[in-house]
Request: fold
Amino acid sequence: MKKLINNAEDVTVEQLKGFGLACDDIDVHFDPNFVNVAGGVKDRVAIVSGGGSGHEPLHGGYVGLGMLDAACPGQVFTSPTPDQMFEAGKTVNGGRGILQIVKNYTGDVLNFQMAADMLRDEGIEVRNVIIDDDVALKDSLYTAGRRGLGTTVIAEKVCGAAAREGYDLDKLAALCKKVNIYGKSMGMALTSCTTPQNGTPSFDLPEDEMEIGIGIHGEPGTKRDKIKSADEVTAILAGRILEDEAYTRNLSEWDPAKGDWVDVEVTDITFQKGDEVIAIVNGMGGTPLSELYTVYAKLAELTAQHGVKIVRNLVGNYITSLEMAGVSITLVKTDEEILRLYDAPVKTPALRWGI
Amino acid sequence: MKKLINNAEDVTVEQLKGFGLACDDIDVHFDPNFVNVAGGVKDRVAIVSGGGSGHEPLHGGYVGLGMLDAACPGQVFTSPTPDQMFEAGKTVNGGRGILQIVKNYTGDVLNFQMAADMLRDEGIEVRNVIIDDDVALKDSLYTAGRRGLGTTVIAEKVCGAAAREGYDLDKLAALCKKVNIYGKSMGMALTSCTTPQNGTPSFDLPEDEMEIGIGIHGEPGTKRDKIKSADEVTAILAGRILEDEAYTRNLSEWDPAKGDWVDVEVTDITFQKGDEVIAIVNGMGGTPLSELYTVYAKLAELTAQHGVKIVRNLVGNYITSLEMAGVSITLVKTDEEILRLYDAPVKTPALRWGI
Amino acid sequence: MADARAGAGTVTGPMVRAWIEKSAEVLAENRKYLTELDSPIGDSDHGNNMDRGYKAVVEKLPEGDDIGAMLKSVAMSLISKVGGAAGPLYGTMFLDGSKPLIGKTVVSGEELAQFFADAINGVKKRGRSDVGMKTMLDALAPASDAFRAEFAKDGDMPASLKAAAAAAKQGMEATIPMQAQRGRASYLGERSIGHQDPGATSSYLILQAFSDAVEEAAK
Amino acid sequence: MADARAGAGTVTGPMVRAWIEKSAEVLAENRKYLTELDSPIGDSDHGNNMDRGYKAVVEKLPEGDDIGAMLKSVAMSLISKVGGAAGPLYGTMFLDGSKPLIGKTVVSGEELAQFFADAINGVKKRGRSDVGMKTMLDALAPASDAFRAEFAKDGDMPASLKAAAAAAKQGMEATIPMQAQRGRASYLGERSIGHQDPGATSSYLILQAFSDAVEEAAK
Ligand SMILES: Nc1ncnc2c1ncn2[C@@H]1O[C@H](COP(=O)(O)OP(=O)(O)O)[C@@H](O)[C@H]1O
Ligand SMILES: Nc1ncnc2c1ncn2[C@@H]1O[C@H](COP(=O)(O)OP(=O)(O)O)[C@@H](O)[C@H]1O
Ligand SMILES: [Mg+2]
Ligand SMILES: [Mg+2]
Ligand SMILES: [Mg+2]
Ligand SMILES: [Mg+2]
Reply:
């Protein structure tokens, strides 16, 4: 295993330590582990997210002005535990409730639910919004449902700006759900990756093969295929995203009236001619930036063919799987509200503009 | 070879195409290949840099407001040809001369010199400033001299801000030379990397070994060693940088009075107690961001022990070798001028703040 | 047919403690194995998660013979140390199962059957899952049924737990040909077929540890 | 002793064209080999660079028999297509060497000796380098000396170029035990010892192509 680490058993702690030292505006806490904007939150909704480590800059890199107020990193590829979100939530609570943005992985969903219950017991209002944008997975009845991928980054950015604008908890949760149904992603891997704890690659991938339809946990995808050119790979991913049919599923959310978790039926948009989108061409961690631009070139061509216009783009490593080589593509439809909030100032370690 | 490419023979063109599509404020030109700030430069010194491709975001990712005006990418790991800098220089010339920032590799130095001669023939004043900050190399008499590493990024940032402030060509070249003698770097590799043209790794590195003292061209380092912990690796690199003795060598520069290239003796600073520095913990391309924070934690400890204070930092992929796993550390001493210019607004694909 | 030994047909506080400690040992021994099972159809962490969790379980286990308190403590440790899917699921399992047992230092076969039932219902509700979906439930549910059936015969606790463990093993093996419908393995669709579920395997190991601990104590 | 064949002792425009074309062929054939030589002590691109460069050289080679014009065109193509260290160095070599030959369609042995001398001086100046530093100069300089010595004997052009190529080969092999003092290989310090210099190798190949081309024409 070739890694810049000291203690394979708990790399998260040593990495968080450096993160805290490098980032002036961010406080780092241990046991339970979480990071939050220094100074806390006053008189507005606070936004908390989290998930397994190994996806950096997600989520810690998005903590800061105009984006997340706190992030809870679990062990590598393992969702965090409820006590992390409980302490993070109490720390950043600004008296107007907490929005938890949760990627749709069984572990994340369950641990954030338990945390929400614990925070609610402390008298803090909490909404969990699930991001499930991975079009590689078709049905939700016979699977754990679509995974949360790149739309998470846009949801965190847009909701962070909205919280600063003073959106209340209900309005913010509604916005976050809108971003989720507006966003679709799909990823692929050229190589596997190795968690520090295991020391060997999570799966074997021969020199001439790739995995299509991967998540972000170093797991194999929905399909294995022979390696193809960047243009062909892009056509597969973008094609599935652009042609994805309206996807309907039940998502769990807290019903404050009922005082219980309820299932709500949700249906995604489909991309239409004339749509304007934010595009992410995201590296999985071990792919050179330059290759992502080759993918972007083809993506721009394909979206144009579909009459879909890319109005903003991010090309780089935004949601990764350690040192995996590969790419994921995300398209999020925009409207006036989303674009205004996306363009609003943001100052985090990984995303910054306007300030 | 596992890469997101279409045509291994000339990946640079397809990558530049996507880069141009993704970056609204940047124009891309082919044959010869270069990128420049859209709208060009008016009535101030223009700054041009370049080098082999494969180091992204260097240099194209630093083109934009407050940093480079143009960048010339060569083939992968091969310095660009003079016609590229010639055309780029003519395109961004704002009538006040051109500063070419050149990393100290024989190919870069020679090609930029030839380009300077060609531009001068067109009546454009040009200064080449060489960055040679790699402390892994001790002497310059029996080698091609120290290589250019991370200090290049800081030189481009600081000089870009100074050009916007209206520094004239002489003052700007002097500033760039100051940044160079204020900056020291050293890198290491955990893995080799593969250029698209070759399809196989540039060198073999067994599972339990690493290369210390590498450049950025996928070449072996000055020394091979058994793999060590992140703390030990950081101690080797930071130790060499912090304890590097005053390094004296001749650097070639254009003497406008003599109308010829002359050798000028230059001596680096050594780090002193009380120095304030900008620190870069730079990933070589295939190292997860999270691991760089582990390195940063140790670096912060070691600089503090030396009485050196990190006042700004960059942690991420800034000057890479394709998908190589590894890290380089750069420390650049600051003063009022450098820090003011470093903090000035910058808006490029890879570095952005204040705007 | 009444057993000659004192307290046969029951599980005592020390037995539960022995079970928990044995579980921790067995999960530590099988850490790599469980993680390897989680590699082709998951994210290669199940063994790491369970080992980390049970290490914390043993560390924080309260003194005394209160079975409900011990099992609740197991739940809380797992919830706060495992993470992933297994953390809240095993946590809920022990939490929901432990509730009727708080304050009890001896538990009857009927109470233990109820413990299994409550525990399994907790997992089903939390995980929106059921038997046949290639999860821990495929080991847990047959074990619970086997325990109830065997205990009904002659109230032999060690034999009943042995039957439970055997059923869990069968259930675990039965996950191999299944296509996963919950958890990460479900993302793989048909490619999940042919692999044994890691969670069903850890469930079997925990139940086997229960059987072994009680059998040893009963000797 | 005068040679019986017409124009012996000289190099003609068509011979130079044949040399250039043969160089391109040989560099294409040895592309992988040169790049492999550049791998342990460089950045694995020398063969790619030279092949790319000479492909452009052949494409842009002007019509006609003007030897100086042809060699200058070689220089300009290499400068604008090779990049790296080899581009400007080989470019300067041909540029500086070509200057006195502009307009000439036949070149004498003395003129060719001067071409070699000018070419080598160009490389030395541009590269701040000299013989013994493990560079292309270690093939070029002995070849130039051998050519001058052999031609002085009896003015046999094919034999003199053969001697030059043989000396280049020796010089190339002599780079193996050297420690590099210029170019990327110098970064490796002592680790550069034991490897043949890629630039010396391409220089040998180009000189061998010269010898072969002239020998064939002289038949
Ligand atoms: N919805 C569910 N209901 C019951 N068990 C589940 C469910 N989802 C996952 N599991 C169990 O959890 C196991 C995986 O646990 P673990 O690897 O620790 O968590 P993660 O999948 O988050 O990495 C699976 O093998 C399966 O038995
Ligand atoms: N200063 C120099 N003088 C003469 N030859 C040099 C010098 N530097 C490098 N070379 C030659 O150039 C060769 C390397 O060329 P190439 O690999 O194409 O360029 P780069 O080193 O920029 O990748 C070396 O093998 C050496 O023979
Ligand atoms: Mg996991
Ligand atoms: Mg090169
Ligand atoms: Mg798992
Ligand atoms: Mg080379």
Q: What stands out?
A: Chains B and C do not touch (no CB pair under 8 Å).
